[in-house]
């Protein structure tokens, strides 16, 4: 059984067979992903709300679908941290400290630039998930690693759809 972690209240110290140091490393990696998930969710919704132009309906629906998918990862990530006895994010301020996805507060962003920015953000998230997966592997936390494998696939799918939506007619990328 694990030792009591000093960063977690004894009332929240969920029993686990994972090493205390490994719980801290996995929790930190998953919390960073969680913060980025919230940041990417809000950016995707922002662009969904402010998309314009001739492909409005297609892009509006695409971004709505993607934001729902991103939001669905948040509870899974947070609950995984709690299942192993870690402590997860508690506030918008905590998210702001941990997020690596940059906010976009511009008054207007052309649709293609929105999609490209989201594509690059999703690529960044997939890379961060791979790094977190390695941390989970090293800690022998197969459950967290398994969750990340599915999330990596979903993130790569979002990246692919955003890439294809921004290609120029005739198949050439601009």
Automatic annotation (TrEMBL):
Short name of one Pfam family for this protein?
Answer: Ferritin
Q: For this UniProt entry, which residues form the secretion signal?
A: none
Query: Residue limits of the Ferritin/DPS domain?
Result: 28-162
Q: Which domain of life is it from?
A: Bacteria
Question: What is a GO molecular function of this protein?
Answer: ferric iron binding
Against SUPFAM superfamilies, the record matches this protein to: Ferritin-like
Q: Which InterPro entries did the record assign?
A: DPS_DNA-bd, Ferritin-like, Ferritin-like_SF, Ferritin_DPS_dom
CDD domains hit by this protein: DPS
The entry sums up its family as follows: Belongs to the Dps family.
Entry protein name: Ferritin/DPS domain-containing protein
Lineage per the UniProt record: Bacteria, Pseudomonadati, Pseudomonadota, Alphaproteobacteria, Hyphomicrobiales
């Amino acid at each position: 059984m694990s030792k009591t972690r000093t960063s977690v209240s004894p009332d929240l110290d969920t029993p686990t067979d994972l090493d205390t140091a490994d719980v801290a490393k996995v929790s930190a990696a998953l919390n960073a992903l969680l913060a980025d998930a919230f940041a990417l969710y809000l950016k995707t919704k922002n662009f969904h709300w402010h998309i314009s132009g001739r492909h409005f309906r297609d892009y509006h629906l695409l971004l709505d679908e993607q934001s729902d998918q991103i939001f669905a990862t948040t509870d899974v990530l947070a609950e995984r941290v709690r299942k192993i006895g870690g402590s997860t994010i508690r506030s918008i301020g905590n998210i702001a400290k941990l997020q690596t996805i940059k906010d976009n507060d511009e008054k207007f962003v052309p649709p293609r630039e929105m999609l490209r920015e989201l594509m690059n953000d999703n690529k960044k998230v997939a890379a961060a998930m791979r790094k977190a997966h390695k941390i989970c592997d090293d800690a022998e936390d197969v459950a967290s690693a398994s969750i990340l494998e599915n999330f990596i696939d979903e993130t790569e799918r979002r990246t692919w759809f955003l890439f294809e939506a921004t290609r120029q007619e005739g198949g050439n990328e601009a």
